[in-house]
Each structure stands twice: as structure tokens, then as C-alpha cells.
Amino acid sequence: MNESNQSHRKNDGVVRILLVDDHPLVREALKNIIRREPDLVVCGEAEDREQALELAAAVEPDMALVDLALKNSHGLELVKDFGSIWPRLKILVLSLQVEAIYAERVIRAGARGYISKQETPGKILMAIRHILAGNIYWSEKAATHVASKIARSSRPGDNLAMEALTDREIQVFELIGFGKSTHEIAAELHINSSTVETYRARIKDKLNIKNAHELLQYAIRCSNDPKF
Fold first, then answer.
1. 69 — phi, psi (to 5°)?
2. Tens digits of residue pLDDT in 49-64
3. Which of 144, 167, 202 is the last residue of a domain?
């Protein structure tokens, strides 16, 4: 769905922002934040990966605000798509997903920042401005996590194994922490149950976890207080 004011072009000095979130109320809240700024405009809205790619090609945004939990897809894959197709597109991930797990990963995938949906409108606008100025935005929590990881990296015995998990394994791990069954994970990620079981086995191996119960407990702990 496109905004009626999407006719703003890149030569008018207005920054065109694409919203990608599967919750209409969230998109409306973001529009309320953006419309107060005379040099920012929402040029389109999408609720999933396919719609976002089609719309981005049509409206040519300068920036995209992307949620990680999208309808029928995962936002991390969309961030990679955007980075591959439109490398100059500035991407801010705005999500409720576990920040300590995803903040660094979305930057590696091509985003310019990560901020929680729980932040104030002022903080969200600050993140937008920070990225438009050519910088990478780290929340205090994300910056603390990255600094802590660097400080720990030279100390033997610290559990940095989470970094060895692939993006898909992280997605499965997070859903395990949310209490999802193998069947539910398969449905949400659009893969079959045997593939989920393969990911479970790989995760246990990489994290040196012995059984499913131990994996569940660790995933729950990380989803609530992710300190690795």
C-alpha cells in the first residue's frame, strides 16, 4: 500500500522512508512520528518480504524501517536482500526481537542500526537522524553487549559459541526460547519439521548442549536475559 504523498522524488530534499512491519498499528505510530518532520515522508508500507521488495523497486526509498518478525518471512533475510539490490538504501531495524542476539547480526547483514520498538518516539527519531547522517546507530544496550563481547573474547572459558550459529540457527534457537514446538517452528519459518530437527541438532552441538530440555532452558534464559 502506498502513501498518497509518495510522489515526492529524490530531488526535492525530502527523505523517502519505506515502512516494513506486519502490524498496521505499528506502521501508523511510525507515520505519526515521521509526519511531524518536514524533511521526512513515508513513501510506502509493506507487511512482508515480497511486498517490501516490490514496493522498494516501485517507490525508490532513501531509507527503510524494518521489523524482524514479518508476515510469512523474517526481516533479517529482507535486510540482506535490500543490501544486495540497493546497497545505498539506509536500513534501520526496529523490532522486539532479542537485541543482544540480533543487533550485531543486522549490521553485518547490511542495516545501519537496530532499535527496540519499546523505545520512545524521540529515541526512534534520533536513530533515524543518526543513520541519515551517515553513522551506525547502536542503542546503549547493544553497544554494551558488543563491548562486553570484545572484552571477553580473549578470556578462555567464556561462552561465545552463540556467534558460531548461523542466522537460521539463531531464528530456530529464538523460537525454541519462545516455547515453540518443532511443528510450530517449521510452520513459522516455512521449512519442514525434519529440517528443524537438523537445526536443533546443530545448535546443541555448537553450544555443547546435551539434550532437548537443556536446550530449551538455555534458550528461554537467553530470550529473557541474553548475556553471553
1. -95, 90
2. 999 999 999 999 999 9
3. 144
Q: pLDDT below 50 — which residues of the chain? A: 1-9, 154-159, 226-228
**Which residue in 141, 194, 148, 145 sits closest to 172, CA to CA?**
194
Q: ∠22-29-37 over CA atoms, to 5°?
A: 125
What are 197-202's contacts with CB under 8 Å, separation 24+?
A: 199/168, 199/169, 199/172, 200/172, 200/176, 202/169
CA distance 37 to 176: 40
Instruction: List, in order, residues 6 or more apart from 47 with CB less than 8 Å away.
Output: 20, 21, 22, 70, 71
34 phi, psi to nearest 5 deg: -75, -40
98 lies in the same domain as 176: no
Cα 127 from Cα 121, distance rounded (Å): 10
94 and 186 fall within a common domain:
no
Largest CA distance in the chain: 59
- Residue type for 210, please? K
Select from 144, 168, 188 the last residue of a domain: 144
User: Are 28 and 133 within one domain?
Assistant: yes
Beta-sheet strand order (sheet of 40-46): 40-46, 15-20, 63-66, 90-95, 113-116
Q: Strands (DSSP E) along the chain, which ranges?
A: 15-20, 40-46, 63-66, 69-70, 73-74, 90-95, 113-116
pLDDT at 124: 94
